[in-house]
Amino acid sequence: MFAVVVTFRIKPEYNGAFLPEMLQNAATSLAMESGCHRFDVCTDSARPEEVFLYELYEDRSAFDTHSTSSHFVEFDAKVARMVTSKEVRTYDQVPT
């Protein structure tokens, strides 16, 4: 498995608009990408400007496919003006 965690910082005026777009992107990724196994969208009411993602992919190649998919590219362009920062971290599963 290949894990991806993403932290978005959202401009305050877009807090309400960002989440529906993010949730649609997550649902589409799960429905259309066989290599996408999990896509959680998380928030904390104490930090309304922060959105945290936890994603699991079959492997790095599946994540690369996600990153270049038409639905992701469209989502990324649509929310670019809403985001002040985006931090992406990736992790390979440690073999047992």
UniProtKB/TrEMBL annotation:
Claim: Oxidoreductase is one of the keywords in the record: yes
EC number: 1.-.-.-
UniProt-listed InterPro entries: ABM_dom (IPR007138), AI-2_Isomerase_LsrG (IPR050744), Dimeric_a/b-barrel (IPR011008)
Pfam assignment, any one: ABM
Keywords assigned by UniProt, alphabetized: Monooxygenase, Oxidoreductase
Domain ABM: start-end pairs: 2-92
Enzyme class, UniProt record, top EC level: oxidoreductase
Gene3D superfamilies attached to this UniProt entry: 3.30.70.100
GO molecular function ontology, one term from the record: monooxygenase activity
Matches recorded under PANTHER family: (4S)-4-HYDROXY-5-PHOSPHONOOXYPENTANE-2,3-DIONE ISOMERASE (PTHR33336:SF1), QUINOL MONOOXYGENASE YGIN-RELATED (PTHR33336)
Name of protein: Quinol monooxygenase
Organism: Sedimentitalea todarodis
Organism placement in taxonomy: Bacteria, Pseudomonadati, Pseudomonadota, Alphaproteobacteria, Rhodobacterales
